[in-house]
């Protein structure tokens, strides 16, 4: 046989044998895998059954626990309801017992009331019998009295009524006098209360005007220019302004002296302009003074308008507005007249409001009450009468006119606001710090206050404070009791009222304290 064919046959046979051997091996492996898969599936089934049993047991335990919990809650709820039902039953029983007891008490009271009613009926019968007997005795007594007095019952009755009438009139007059005295006392208390409230609610400025004004200079060389050759410039200034210029050794200052603040202000402003301009000679001085006077007139009108606007006063005549502004440059007893009038106007408005009157009318009268103090021309009339004429001339309300004229009792008061203006004027002028007081008099008043307090036994120290408006008294605790301190305060206040003269009011404060000090070392 051909060796090539043989080799091919042998190769094919080897190939066939290999294929058969591979199938045999594959069949063996597949069987093994099947067996392993069967074992794994059985194992998985066993594990699943075990897990299912475990879950089943856990769920059964949870269900049992939930059942026990629900049963416990149910039992608690049942017990709570049973307790509430028991309490309700107890309350119902108590109420039933109370109602039964009330019913028994009511029955007992009804029986007692019946007995009382029977007793009252018997007493009424007895009273009726006695009344009948009394009427018989009264008729007999009247007949005897008529026989004895020779008067009929009607005549005796008339005499008795007349005597009772006279007695009643006497008692009525006495009661009327008591009521009048009480009304006066109450009126005084109410008036004091209104005045104190008005003062407390008004914040007043303490403006003190002087009779001189110091004009400051940059250097003393300007003094020579102001004096001028042979003093002609200073004479021209004094003639144009009506103010005395005092040029002395005071460095860089000239004193303007005049009792008229308006003239001093014109002189001061004129000097300021002349010094700034540098041209100082008589013709220039007269020109500057005239311009300054016109400027001051405009300023006066502006001050008056601002004042009436701030106070809420409307419809005031222009001339009266100018006079109000002019009061800014006038002082009385050292008190600025415009500040005083504004304060009086505010006080009048507050008091009028408290008394139920027209506050705007009262403010108007308070502002204008001193317009007679700034006349354009000199007159012999008092400022109250001159102010009244001015107000009447410019068509003011009759109540305002009367209040201006009557605030110093120079004419009769005819309107309610007149005494209000008078009182407010006195308050503004008398309050501490409003007007000038000589230093010696002030110091003496303070000293007298302290000496008066020190004259009482048991007083250790005394201090007059707040410009003499308060007196503080330090009492010895061993000698003065709490009751004595109240009495001491009252007696000192009474003595101050009777023996001293002072503006406003003085508060007396008695302080009593006992201190015990121990030092720990």
Q: How are the secondary structure elements laid out?
A:
Blueprint (H helix, E strand, L loop, with lengths): L2 H147 L3 H48 L11 E5 L4 H7 L4 H10 L2 E3 L6 E5 L3 H17 L4 H30 L6 H9 L4 E2 L2 E2 H18 L4 H10 L14 H11 L4 H9 L10 H14 L8 H16 L4 E7 L4 E6 L6 H18 L7 E6 L9
Helix pairs in contact: 2-8, 4-6, 5-6, 6-7, 8-9, 8-12, 9-11, 9-12, 10-11, 11-12
Instruction: Give the termini distance in whole angstroms.
Output: 144 Å
Poorly predicted residue ranges? 205-209
User: Which percent band covers the strand fraction?
Assistant: 5-15%
Q: Strands of the largest sheet, in order across it?
A: 1-3-2
Taking the sheet with the most strands, its summary is:
3 strands, antiparallel
Average pLDDT value?
A: 80
What are the secondary-structure elements, in order, as H or E? HHEHHEEHHHEEHHHHHHEEHE
Write down how many β-strands occur, each being a DSSP E stretch of 2 or more residues. Answer: 8
**Oligomer category:** single chain
Number of helices: 14
- Rg over CA atoms: 57 Å
Classification by helices and strands: mainly alpha
Helix content: 55-70%
Rough outline: flat
Describe this structure in words.
With 521 residues, the chain is mainly alpha-helical. It has helices at 3-149, 153-200, 221-227, 232-241, 261-277, 282-311, 318-326, 337-354, 359-368, 383-393, 398-406, 417-430, 439-454, 482-499; strands spanning 212-216, 244-246, 253-257, 331-332, 335-336, 459-465, 470-475, 507-512. A three-stranded antiparallel sheet has the order 1-3-2, with helices on one face. β6 and β7 form a beta hairpin. The longest helix is centred in the first third of the chain and has 147 residues, at 3-149. The protein is flat and about 175 Å long.
